[in-house]
Amino acid sequence: MHSYIPLSPTTFLERSGQAFPNRSAIGFATAPWAIAYPDKIVTYAELLHRSRCLAQVLKRLQVGYGDRVALLTQNNQQTIEAHFGIPAIGAVIVALNPWLAAQDLLSLLNYCEAKVLIVDASLSEKILLNPLFALSHLQQVIVIDHAANPIYSGVLDYETCLAGENGDFRLDQTVVSELDPLAINFTSGTTGRPKGVICNHRGAYLNALGQALMIGLNRASKYLWLLPMFHVNGWGHIWANVAVGATQVVLPDHQIGDGYADLIQALSQYQITHLCGAPRLVRSLANAPGDKRGFRGLTITTGGAAPAPTLIQQLDEMGVNFIHQYGLNETFGPYVVCEEQEEWQALPPSSRAKKRARQGVATIHAGTGLRVVDADRRDVPWDGRTLGEVIVAGNTVACGYYNNPEATEKAFRDGWFHTGDMAIMHPDGYLEIRDRLKDLIYVETDYGWENISSIEIENVLCRHEQVREAAVIGISPEELGKNRTLLVAFVEARDSQTLTGEDLRHFCGSQLASYKQPQVFLFTDLPKTATGKVRKDLLIGEALKLYELKI
Ligand code: AMP
Q: Per the structure, how many domains does the chain have?
């Protein structure tokens, strides 16, 4: 039809390849950082050609419409190419979390019945040498950089495959319906068993354009990849960058390690304009030693967990353009944004930071499909007090879970996706996440019980100058064998030699209602998921163990 073409992010690259053939699509930040601006770049014409070749390779391997192609890769050029080459033939991207254990990876590969796996040589051992590998459904494995060190037989080398094609295959010709699946993303599993979230072409297209607007990407942008590309397809930012003709800068093997100070140098070296990451990463960057000039004017977007107001204030002082978004796997990533109002700029810095730590309002692409409702699905009052569940519906909400009708029916019902996140609405219409439904801490009080938010207590703890990060959990009376909930604070101290539980007890005593004050303080490194969420499930086990031993 002349007035309707299925929306698909694959079209972004066909356009940018034509509009900006000589512009740099991908740059490589190489250590040592002091050397000149990326010596190697991939132009838009090259990215288009290579992605088209990858589509041809997959077709030659008999990958059909709707078949799954798995990726086990770090943040690299090939992952970007795969985000165009795979959907261009109507196949479905399954980007796996490379930090998962080998048996989990193999069970996910089997679960989604991937036909082809594209894997980095550096990650291949974990899978290809595992005895369980023989049981997988895979028909072909393509190893990136295999020719350089050919250790396996029966696998294909990525570059050799691409070199065998002519690139004469347009990326925008195959998608039949914009509602067909484009990707399956497994939830990170802070709670329960992973679920394969199905994203369609239309949602990915709209999310990418929405994200380009929300974080202010344009063709002059230089976007440094610190967010893992496997996580919700890098929040859609691979497609968003290509849509506007920006440059994506990747680190070798996505290795940050302890090199935050180097990274800070790289920001100015490569004139980075944008980066994204969970609050923990942003905090590490902000606290790393070194010249912070590269932060001035830099746009940093965070999400995945709530940033502490102290972090926001610190970034403000450093001249960062800070953006806070909230979303889930099931919303293709960011769905809510804390839009800053002009009048907040006149507030004292700490009050302004507190407002900006709230999750905010719907993004452009989310439109009006955002509510906070009570158990009867009535909108909660905008009183800054009444808790309700966040529910969403719209063009960037997932279709459901792959091959899991029970989980789909449970979460996607009555026309809304039920996030499981509990929030309040402030009188100005800004939403503030208080907790995940499961992680809300119920405590007994003198007058009955209260739902308390671990985030609130964690924010107070983070205000203590010796506290780097904190996570608070509640151990229920059942788990404890007592009649009251025990609040336990796990604290990462800046200097664990000097800070004591007594100091923190005193500190909380002056700032929190008594029923919100942790009774136990434990000093430790916080366990995290690959995407930076604190593993509170592990902390509960840890606390119980310690409780038995010494409390
Ligand atoms: P995932 O699906 O793995 O991306 O995890 C999504 C979950 O992370 C949400 O349901 C929230 O519980 C949490 N989350 C994401 N963004 C934020 C944020 N800005 N503030 C607080 N929690 C967040």
A: 1
